[in-house]
Amino acid sequence: MNKNMSIETIIKEGLGTIVDVRTRSEFSGGHVANSINVPLQELEEKMSEIESMKQPLVLCCASGGRSGSAEMFLKRKGIECFNGGSWLSVNYIVNQAK
Fold it and tell me: Does a structural domain hold residue 22?
């Protein structure tokens, strides 16, 4: 994929998967439509599931901290991914794309 491709383009053109790395309870309190919840602490054990997702992944959490950690971890594992920051920011982009 083009390194200059933006998170907005990935989302608006449906080129990847949105993965929310917050806890299950945070996710159940509100999340981006059609996003997949894989809590940060479960990334290692869910690698086969993650590898089968449509890449690139757009990672989000509450503020961007955990999704940043997830991005570093997953890139080391060869997963194409981007830190989308707050799920609210990603949600805004999704809603703009509709």
Answer: yes
- The residue range of the domain holding 83 is 7-97
Q: How much of the chain exceeds pLDDT 90, in percent?
A: 93
Residue with tokens 């869910």: 46
- CB atoms near residue 82 (< 10 Å): 19
> For 76-94, what is each residue's pLDDT tens digit?
999 999 999 999 999 999 9
The pairing of strands 17-20 and 57-61 is parallel
Helix, strand or coil, per DSSP, at residue 23: coil
| Cα gap 52→4, rounded to integer Å | 24
User: How far is it, in rounded angstroms, from Cα 59 to Cα 85?
Assistant: 7
Residue 36 in domain: yes
Q: Is residue 2 part of a domain?
A: no
Q: Retrieve residue 36's tokens.
A: 């997949």
Entry pTM: 0.95
